[in-house]
From TrEMBL, chains A, B:
The keyword Lipid metabolism does not apply. SUPFAM superfamilies: FAH, Fumarylacetoacetate hydrolase, FAH, N-terminal domain. This is fumarylacetoacetase. The lineage of its organism: Bacteria, Bacillati, Actinomycetota, Actinomycetes, Geodermatophilales. Residues 19-106 form the Fumarylacetoacetase N-terminal domain. It comes from the Bacteria.
């Protein structure tokens, strides 16, 4: 590995070397929300360093809409600034310690779509939610199943996770009851941020993924499994998901992920031509880590995902629907074949029936008030470096006491 | 009925009398998109008449965010202007013939939610899609089932309906095929537009509906039933809906609907307290009319809806999810008990198995290229007047010829 290219003091094992350069929105006591790039322990203030008003809007949207040539030009500029010591005097005043910044949601999201593209996850959920039926529905190997989530409930990493209240009905109950969710869960996912919009009526071919998508973030799709199980037939998840979806603050450009590209796993079922991704290598060799209270509890491998993000984008636009700048689509829970590779507590505890043990022996199933969950990820970068995706975190706080509903 | 209160020449049977005053966004050759109010055959240019920049933004959002006191003050002002001849010289230059305006999507929608609140519709669909099972799922009488739709595919009435392409698999087929939908349908719905946002984590009580919702429009949730049937298990409708959802241009204020409020139908199953709407009278006595090529084919009665919009809003926020200004939630297809009261061709033709006949004897099932569909609605206004909701229309055009998907 080598970060010797920079005049900045970068740790050998930083995941935020010159190979990464993720974009995000930050503020400090004296800097209003603006665009920055993470490098080592600093944030480069792009508003200040470039003087370009596109970086002062408080979201990445305007820059993302500018498209791949603008993305590449900025990346080259920043790489040059951080490599050539001649630029040090210009750049230095615009470097802010990462410890001093507050991060914000990086994009204003128009539509948020959540897919369901891990075969291991889908099979696990099918076995847990629909025992006695085939774990995969007949459509699963033919299309990347997805649904729309609530864009207004997206929030940046660190936002408290207020335990949601709602209806749930256990099979043994005659009637539904109302109260705080007792099966609060995570879903460790990878998200894809659209930069260049598509044209309504014109599908995005599977090979045009990088013409539209700017980069990659982490997503925790918090889920209330008791609410979800009661509500989701026939129109899908709704309140079981819509209370909060957390997003990591740094969006890693696709340009940083060339070394992470890989062939997806072999598929046993042939796909229709619009989903044919032979040779495209849009599998991504990310390794996620899920920590509960700081303790590693799962290591989901993204390179095992059945459907790639290029197929997801091709599918969601094949009916003529367009994507807009800032749209976010997520992979669905990332789970691998191993028990310690499952990206949800639903799976780690097999629906609560098989608690898993923390290092001190404490048995755990779903989330308890006070739990802190952090999802991180890294991917191989060029020259043996690692690309970090930072983290998406959240701490569970008790359900709010609310006054009895007013009906008059 | 009486429109004698106005110095304007209003037809006795106009649905756009002083009792209505719906808001929309219009433009003309020399007026950029701005807020207007429909009255008789005119549009009152609020940007010009009030001089208030809130009406020049090209969406209703900023005005809707101002809340009920601002809504009431403007309504009183416009009523006074159009009633007292002393204001004629001020108002007259700001009246534009409706025939001369182009209408636009009235709001910038953050999240779009579609409910499923007609019992007759849900039972019909259950019988058609899931023969042999109970027509209603066990949760249906306990909560207003809903799901998120694609906000980016919302478009104003008149937008062409390009027949979507996608995957579908008939039960007799071994494998899915790809192509233009052969079961393109409508869903005649009523939509509710949020003005005042709610606070994340704080549910909106069922009695606070009018503190948040500004008004009502019509929605046609175009649906590709073959795509939908293949994709919707287990996460709900996705591409079968996301290609286009059309919205009527005029938003009728709740203030215009006092005479239309009614008790919803009796419910056989008790609801949880947060959904208890006893005495609230948020049923609405709207009568929809669905026309195919100008011919009336269905008359769905909105007063038969099982769940009211007040219950829908209470439900969608009970888990802590917030609504934002401009959010739109729709009722789901409006169907009554009669065969000629069904708000979709799926139901009118019983899944295509029982074609219905046009006046000239032509048997019809799903939409054909060239079909024009118009959904209109009226409701009782004060003093025997009628409140018109205008119309939401669309004409089906053939699927676009697209180049074979590029995979490299």
């Amino acid at each position: 590995m080598s970060h010797s290219g920079s005049w900045l003091d970068l740790a050998d094992d930083t995941g935020f070397g010159l190979e990464n350069l993720p974009h995000g929105i930050f503020s400090t006591a004296d800097r209003a929300p603006r665009t920055g790039i993470a490098v080592g322990g600093w944030v480069l203030d792009l508003a200040g360093a470039t003087g370009d008003p596109v970086h002062t809007t408080g979201t990445l949207n305007a820059f993302l809409a500018a498209g791949p040539p603008a993305w590449a030009a900025l990346r080259a500029q920043v790489t040059d600034w951080l490599t050539d010591p001649a630029h040090r005097d210009h750049v230095q005043p615009h470097l802010v310690p990462r410890a001093d910044v507050t991060m914000h949601l990086p994009v204003q999201v128009g539509d948020y779509v959540d897919f369901y593209s891990s075969r291991h996850h889908a099979e696990n959920v099918g076995r847990i939610f629909r025992p006695g039926s085939a774990p995969l529905t007949p459509n699963w190997e033919h299309l990347p199943i997805g649904y729309h989530g609530r864009a207004g409930s997206l929030a940046v990493s660190g936002t408290p996770v207020v335990r949601p209240r709602g209806q749930r009905k256990a099979p043994a109950d005659d009637l539904p009851t109302f109260g705080p969710s007792t099966r609060l869960d995570i879903e460790a996912e990878v998200g894809f941020v659209v930069g260049v919009p598509s044209t309504p009526g014109t599908p995005v071919p599977v090979g045009a993924f990088a013409d539209h998508v700017f980069g990659v973030c982490l997503v925790n799709d918090w889920s209330a499994r008791d609410l979800q199980a009661w509500e989701y037939v026939p129109l899908g998840p709704f309140l079981g998901k819509s209370f909060l979806t957390s997003v990591s603050p740094w969006v890693v450009p696709l340009a940083a992920l060339e070394a992470a590209r890989t062939d997806p796993p072999a598929r046993g079922t042939a796909v229709l031509p619009y989903l044919d991704d032979a040779g495209l290598r849009w599998g991504l060799d990310l390794t996620l880590e899920v920590r509960l209270g700081g303790e590693l509890v799962a290591t989901p491998p993204f390179d095992q995902m059945y459907w790639t993000p290029a197929q997801q984008l091709a599918h969601l636009t094949v009916n003529g629907a367009a994507v807009r700048t800032g749209d976010l689509f997520a992979s669905g829970t990332v789970s691998g074949p191993g028990r310690d590779q499952r990206g949800s507590f639903l799976e780690l505890s097999w629906g609560g029936a098989e608690p898993f043990a923390l290092a001190d022996g404490t048995p755990r199933t779903f989330l308890e008030d006070g739990d802190e969950v952090a999802v991180t990820a890294t991917a191989p970068g060029p020259g043996g470096t690692r690309i970090s995706f930072g983290e998406v975190t959240g701490t569970v706080v008790p359900a709010l006491e609310v006054a009895p509903p007013v009906t008059g």
